[in-house]
Structure formats: C-alpha cells, structure tokens
Design goal:
Elements: H1 2-11, H2 15-35, H3 39-56, H4 59-83, H5 103-138
Helix pairs in contact: 1-2, 1-3, 4-5
Length: 140
C-alpha cells in the first residue's frame, strides 16, 4: 500500500524530474521498505513534490510578486496610521522647512517613501535568495 502511495507521489512530479529520478527513488524505496519503515521517504516525497513544482515551474516568481504587492499595499496603508498626528496637534511638516504641508501631501510623500523602500528591500532579498538557491543547485 505504501509503495502505491509513493509511486503516485512520484507520478505527480514534473516530467523532467520523474524521467531522471523516479526509477532510482523507487529502487531506494524498495530497499528501505525491506529494512523497515518508509514514513520518512513518503514525507520527503511530499516535500520534493512541492519544491519541484514551486521552483522548477517558475511559480515562485508569481508568489514573490503577489507577496511583494501585499507588502507594498499593507505598508502603504499603514503609513497613514504610523505617521499622521492625532487631532489637535500641529499638521505634519517636512523636516527642515518652516511652512506646514497639507496632510494629503505629507501622506503622499510617506506613501512614496514606504513604497520605494519596500521595493528596494524586496528586490534585494529576492536577488540574494535566487543567488543562494542557484549556488546550491550548481553545487558551489
């Protein structure tokens, strides 16, 4: 029964991966099954399935884009609560200027700063992650 489950999990992997590794993985499964429990291999097949479809198919690009958009919208939306002053206090001012700004202009500047900063952080982290991921694949 567990062999059928494991073979089914292998069948769900991308075609290129399945052609290259399925026979070897099934052989290892048979060896381990003869000696004892196969729970670790089945768990590994589930992890491998997710990893292969996520990274090999390029779905991570869409996930990173959605996550980046979510962060931008969230941080931009929270900037109103983080930087505006409560009622009865002076209106927001740009540092170093004597004239008060309109609240709408101050919010726009804050939104632009948060968005720009978020984009820089997202691009930097994504670049570092991709570089680390490709080094692991290449074996460096």
């Amino acid at each position: 029964m567990t062999r059928i489950l494991y073979r089914s999990l292998l069948g769900l992997h991308p075609t290129v991966f399945r052609r290259r590794f399925a026979q070897e993985m099934l052989c290892i499964f048979d060896e381990v099954a003869a000696e004892g429990t196969t729970a670790a291999l089945i768990a590994d097949a589930f992890v491998s399935l997710g990893r292969q479809w996520l990274f090999r198919s390029g779905a991570w690009i869409a996930i990173a884009a959605v996550l980046g958009a979510f962060i931008q919208v969230t941080v931009g939306g929270f900037s109103f609560f983080l930087f505006t002053r409560g009622p009865g206090l002076n209106s927001p001012r740009v540092y170093g200027t004597a004239a008060p700004m309109s609240p709408a202009a101050a919010e726009l500047i804050q939104l632009m700063l948060w968005t720009s900063g978020s984009l820089v952080v997202i691009v930097l982290l994504t670049t570092l992650w991709i570089r680390n991921f490709t080094r692991r694949i290449d074996g460096h």
